[in-house]
Amino acid sequence: MLRLNKLTKQYKTGDLALKDVDLEIPNGQVLALIGPSGAGKSTLIRCVNRLVEPTSGTAHLGEVELTSLSQGQLRKVRRRIGMIFQEYALVERLTVMENVLSGRLGYVSFWRSYFRKFPQSDIDEAFRLLERVGLDHMADKRADELSGGQRQRVGICRALIQNPELLLVDEPTASLDPKTSRQIMRLIRELCQERNLSAIINIHDVLLAQMFAERIVGLQLGEIVYDGPPDGMTPDVLTQIYGEEDWEATIEKVEDEDDEDGAVASVAAD
Amino acid sequence: MSISRIWKRPPFIKSPMLRWGIAVGGAIYLALALGTMEINWGRVADGLPRAERFVSAFFPPDFVSKSGDILDGIYESLWMTVVSTVIGIGLSIPVGLGAARNLAPRPVYLFSRGILALSRTFPEIIIALFAVKIFSFGPFAGIIALSVGTVGFYGKLLAEDIEDMDVVQAEAVKSTGASWFQWLNYAIQPQVMPRMIGLAMYRFDINFRESAVVGIVGAGGIGATLLTSFDRYEYDTSAAILLIIIAIVMAVEYSSGYVRKWVQ
Amino acid sequence: MPIKSSGTTKVWQRRDRNRQVSIWAVQFIAVAIFMYCWQLVSDKTTWFFVLDAPRITVDMVERMIPPKWSYMETLWRPVWDTVAIATLGTLMAVVMAFPIAFLAARNTTPSTAFVRPIALFVIVASRSINSLLWALMLVTILGPGVFAGMLAIGFRSIGFCAKLLYEAIEEIDESQVEAITATGASGPQILNFGIVPQILPAFAGISVFRWDINIRESAVLGLVGAGGIGLQLSASIDTVTWTQVSVILLVILATVIVSEWVSAKIRHSII
Fold first, then answer.
1. Superfamily for domain range C68-270
2. pLDDT at C202 > cutoff 80
3. B-chain residue closest to A136, CA distance
């Protein structure tokens, strides 16, 4: 489980991106992080795997204190944290297979990875994951030949082949059309349930957050202003997080939720 | 339970015949090229003390004893560069315009491309060689050589830039009923200008370096002084000249960054 | 701002006054410099010879025709040497430019205060000195021959290749590097999986481009004794055998055409 304790990030320009954030995520919980641009969502998840260095505060993954690790130890722990990016961040010129296998880089020595001699168990797992997301037949295509939704699925495989305990997901649907967005979010939620994975999902689409997450955390100017279940998202809460707007149109009423899910499930033809 | 699937990284070149053909052919060529290169190791060994003398000549270099010649030579190289860059670019504009497929009628296009190809084939030094024969010794020959080189270089890049331009913008200007020259000035020039100014500075850089060399065949600039210092084993002076050349190139590179920003 | 109000009417000019004045000033200075330099050129030029030039040119061209085709037999070896100088020199340069480029790029250099300036200096020094000058130095040290020529081309090309390469490295998509880092990969693995695939097309293109240029440069090194067809050229001019000179020029033309074609083909197939 993940524990953030008074996590703070101040940039050199003086901007305070995170202010004393406290957060606890038990195993297997899928959490959606919402908030306006500049609220600190990206910063928060990057502080967990230290792609961005926190200014003060601590983060614990299970027993390990992430914030005090040396570079070598950090690399080892990063293997336990999978990350999925907004613009997919696949290595465009490598094939789908190579991109998925690159999730195992932390487990393989440099020379083995240079010659692409990954262990057979890794290759089996890669094929299994690609089948699971429906990209089995595209293993040898170059990443830049894929559509947005396909690329994101490869990104998901890359994160999962690490066999992580925690998933950090940065705006996975920002560049995708509405139908594909739902497919991807559904996929992530299913995979997390299958593997009892915790996940923090940065997302700006409040509707998607409500549909697919168990818990919603609202961030504003570096501070948590909401922490609760999806159906607690009333227009007042949204006004507090984002500002004044016609929120009725954005959020789901609780009664409609079951109908939506049912309708979407029957339409879904992955 | 499915059988384990083997995966290998797909090779860069798909057809195995082509792949092996290139690998084997390349290996054979390298072996031959290296083999036919006659290295007289004895001579190399003899040369090492001279190499040592040469390197030690840089600490410190001698700017003083031949300072008159050095200053004259550098000065000459600099204004040779200015003149040839200006003339060269001036001439390349019509040639470049003529060599752009989307601008020029076919015969003009072919003719201009021919001029560009010819100017680019021979390195400036060879052109300088002939220029010296024709125009006699001195910086004039060097300027001719560098200008020709500039036309080939700049004209080709200008033509390519024009061919790469956004057609829609040009169409829009044309549809207002602008004359040909107005069209050039409003549609072509703004698209092409930023990159071409950067390239002009780059060509200035190249011309300066070339001007330092054409003196070897008598076409003016610091090259002659440098050659003399080598022939007389005055390596201290050679080192001084080389360092000045490096310094000027660095200065040009540095200032080209500023010029580009100013132009934006 | 280019818009001013003059009474009740709004006046638009292309540029505001300050910028306009500074542009005029720059143009004025540029023209002045040019006129000054032209004056210097003029002083040093014997205009008599310049006016005589057309006559001399015609004379020279007449002497070059017809080309002495029998001379071709002696030229095969020099052409082979020239291509070898260019190819081996470019190979050497590319191998050395690769690490230097990584040391010089802002996002991959181990230390911006110490290592990067040194790498940048090596690059500038290498490319400031024309290959002919390198050849001059190397011939003095190592004696005449193809070896000196190869090293000269190599030393000069390091700067060119490393400069373009480090610019390509600085322009990569950092999010791909971020993603690979997030998996727990080590430094060399990040280089190998995140950075190198992004710059590979640029790297190949730059190498082939430089090889093409080097063919031209190698042809000339013989003028200072560093092997290749330049030796023949130098000899033929000294003995004033113009018919041989024309053959040599045609051979150089042919070699350049072939190498340009090859280089264009390879660069197209890499994209």
1. MetI-like (1.10.3720.10)
2. yes
3. B5
